[in-house]
Design brief:
Helix content is 32%, strand content 25%.
Length: 399
């Protein structure tokens, strides 16, 4: 059985991969700046005789068996760090102030490098091709790297694509996957409320943007609760409110910034419709002007049914103690969605939460990727390769 042969080699590079992961953690690079990380991965791929090329500037695309008979499936890992501080005292903590691997992409990269090494040892036994996508800029710094890679044609000839993410909110060692939407579409809103400023002792001659803005914060909470009803399916959060500079002046304007998260196109349109109605109504009520600047983020990440089932089968066969749909979909977003728009695919989560501990979540300054997950992630990816290339014929249509 191909899967068992692949799994037997997972621990071969365990110590080296842990060292690589920690080295990448120590030297974090932001989106489209992953020059050092790219070089490290390229050296590894050369060592295992891969055919590879740069993509999206600081990414890489590597083929196990270019031109080999059989279908091609793609596996993706993200490379970039976050523009935030590290608060740990780890010996391999970030050496760059304001940059840190606080989402686990260092671990995702190590997992994919391990997969590359194992597959290379069984190159002629793989009935098809595996394309490894080392992607820059997932974190949305100056846009998403996945979209750039798709535009460059990295999915040409690819039948399916797979990706993963560690998730401290799920129990360590578990795998969470489901068909359909697993991560949200994101819109970022910037609302400017323009009124008439003046002395705080004379509010009657002003058009107070703070009062209007405060009303907006409350009223926008009805967009989902009253706009979508009991089905839910959306989130609207005001995350920043900026107005005024001193204690005795009513300012002329206020600014609100936040996020909208949805999981289906119909819900997206309904939320945006109600959102604009609330803005217009509030402006009329308080005699102020309300302007909206809306940024469209990553689309909904949808898993194809056959691909999600393949991940579940692979994880179960690999001995993962819990394979479940629980906790999905997540309100976070992911640019793997661009890959899944082009070819059928599945994105899954590796639980990283330690029982009895308050494990820091992704994007927390105390977060660190759990090195125990390197082997788990490798086993699931390798199991998917065996399932889709040596087992069932890859699906051609998304769910």
């Amino acid at each position: 059985m191909l899967a068992k042969a692949l799994w037997a080699d997972v621990e071969t590079h365990s110590e080296e991969l842990t060292g690589i992961r920690r080295d990448i953690h120590k030297h974090p690079e932001l989106g489209f700046e992953e020059v050092r990380t790219q070089a490290k991965v390229a050296d590894w791929l050369s060592r295992f005789e891969y055919t590879f090329r740069p993509s999206a500037g600081t990414g890489l695309v590597a083929d196990l068996n270019p031109g080999h008979p059989g279908p091609t499936i793609a596996l993706r890992a993200d490379l970039d760090a976050l523009p935030m501080p590290e608060r740990t005292n780890l010996p391999y903590r970030s050496v760059h102030d304001g940059r840190a691997h606080k989402c686990g992409h260092d671990g995702h990269t190590a997992i994919m490098m391990g997969v590359a090494a194992v597959l290379a040892g069984h190159r002629e036994r793989i009935p098809g091709n595996v394309r490894l996508l080392f992607q820059p800029a997932e974190e949305g710094v100056r846009g998403g790297g996945a979209k750039v890679m798709v535009e460059e044609g990295v999915l040409e000839g690819v039948a399916e694509a797979y990706g993963l993410h560690n998730w401290p909110g799920f129990a360590k060692g578990s795998v969470h996957v489901r068909p359909g939407p697993v991560m949200a579409q994101v819109h970022t809103f910037h609302v400017t409320v323009k009124g008439r400023g003046g002395h705080a002792s004379q509010p009657q001659v002003c058009r107070d943007p703070i009062v209007a803005g405060a009303h907006l914060v409350t009223a926008l909470q009805t967009v989902v609760s009253r706009g979508l009803g009991y089905d839910g399916g959306g989130v609207v959060s005001v995350c920043h409110f900026d107005a005024g500079h001193t204690h005795n002046v009513i300012p002329s304007q206020a600014r609100l910034t936040g996020t909208i998260r949805t999981f289906a196109e119909a819900d997206t349109q309904r939320v945006l419709e109600r959102f604009r109605e609330v803005l217009d109504g509030t402006g009329a009520m308080f005699g102020v002007t309300v302007d909206l600047d809306l940024e469209v983020g990553y689309p909904v990440l949808n898993n194809a049914t056959d691909c999600a089932m393949a991940v579940a089968r692979a994880a179960t066969a690999a001995g993962v103690r819990e394979v479940t749909e629980r906790g999905l979909p997540l309100g976070a977003s992911e640019d793997f969605a661009y890959f899944a728009q082009v070819v059928p695919g599945a994105y899954f989560f590796l639980g990283a939460g330690i029982a009895g501990e308050d494990t820091p979540g992704c994007h927390h300054p105390d977060f660190d990727f759990d090195d125990d997950l390197i082997g788990v992630g490798m086993r699931v990816f390798l199991g998917v390769v065996a399932d889709r290339l040596a087992g069932a014929r890859p699906a051609r249509n998304a769910a």
